[in-house]
Each structure stands twice: as structure tokens, then as C-alpha cells.
Specification:
With 181 residues, the protein is mainly alpha-helical. The radius of gyration is 20 Å and the shape is elongated. It has one domain. The chain starts with a helix and ends in a 24-residue tail after the last helix. Helix 1 crosses helix 4. The protein is 56% helix and 0% strand. The C terminus is likely disordered.
Length: 181
């Protein structure tokens, strides 16, 4: 029983770590609102729609981006340093992580106390069954090779894309560092 409890604790911690990692991975894929994610990544439509007509003009988009740069320009020199860009990206990641964590608590908090226990985190996606599937040699522990095999299995299930999908469940991170939602 203690072995199972220890395994559940490890899996719950892995789930929480996965949530944080998936947020970082999402921000990385989106380019932190600049670059790879395109010009719409990180766009707050309501904030950008200055005249509140439900449409964005090119001028509103430009003004919104300029305001973002001005807000991120900590030393007010009119330029963004790597440190200022990193701070802007981290603030966005923090906001996403907080929203994601609130969704996890809302979804899994069976006793309504606003916090998650190991038992509440272990309910889905059937941690004990997943652990048993991954434990290829049946020794009651997961080796790095078994974890890597699990990652490969999840990537194959996603068609080799290597990025998670939430399927409308709020994407709360996964078993393998958030890459297998």
C-alpha cells in the first residue's frame, strides 16, 4: 500500500510539473506573442479594440502592440532588451499558468476546499493504470527508458506532431513534462 501511495505521490507531482512545463512549451510554440506565434499570438482582443466596435483596425492593432512594448520597456529607452522581452514573456506565461491551475482546481477539487490532494489529482487520467502500462518490466518503478517509451507512444498517438492537445479539457499538462495532453 505504501508503494502505491508513493507512486501516486510521484505521479501527482509529475502532473503538477507537467502543467508548468506545458505552459512553458505553449509559450515557446507561440513565440511569447512575438515571432513564431505570429502577430495574433497573445492578442487581448478586448484591450486592442479601442473603440469597442467588435472589430480591429490596423491602427488599433498597431496601437495595442505599441502599448505592449511601452509597458514592457522597463528602462523607458524606447527599446526592448532581451531581459525586458524575457520579463514580458514570463508575465504572459505566469498569467496562462495561473488560469490553467485555476481550471485544474475547478475540475478536480472533489471536496470543494480550493486545493488538490494527491487523491484528487490521481483520479484522471487513471494514474495507476497508466503507471502499470508504462512499467514495461513490471518492477513497480519507471525507468528513464520507460518514460521515454511513453513519450514516444504519446507522440505517435498524436501523429508524431510532438505537441499536446487538450481536446477541450483545458490542457492541464501531462504525464511526461506536459507534452502529452
Amino acid at each position: 500500500m505504501t508503494k502505491m501511495r508513493n507512486a501516486m505521490t510521484v505521479l501527482a507531482l509529475a502532473t503538477l510539473t507537467g502543467a508548468a512545463m506545458s505552459t512553458a512549451a505553449l509559450a515557446d510554440r507561440m513565440g511569447g506573442g512575438m515571432g513564431a506565434g505570429g502577430p495574433l499570438a497573445g492578442l487581448d482582443f478586448a484591450a486592442a479594440d479601442a473603440d469597442k466596435d467588435g472589430k480591429l483596425t490596423a491602427e488599433e492593432m498597431e496601437a495595442y502592440r505599441a502599448a505592449e512594448v511601452t509597458a514592457a520597456d522597463a528602462d523607458k529607452d524606447g527599446k526592448l532588451s532581451a531581459a525586458e522581452l524575457a520579463a514580458m514573456t514570463m508575465a504572459r506565461m505566469q498569467a496562462r499558468a495561473e488560469a490553467q491551475a485555476a481550471q485544474m482546481v475547478k475540475r478536480h477539487d472533489a471536496d470543494g476546499d480550493g486545493m488538490l490532494t494527491v487523491a484528487e489529482l490521481s483520479v484522471r487520467p487513471a494514474p495507476a493504470r497508466m503507471f502499470e502500462r508504462l512499467d514495461a518490466d513490471g518492477d513497480g518503478a519507471l525507468s528513464e527508458a520507460e518514460i521515454e517509451a511513453g513519450r514516444a507512444m504519446m507522440a505517435e498517438m498524436r501523429g508524431g506532431r510532438g505537441e499536446g492537445r487538450s481536446h477541450g479539457r483545458g490542457g492541464h499538462g501531462g504525464w511526461f513534462g506536459g507534452h502529452d495532453q
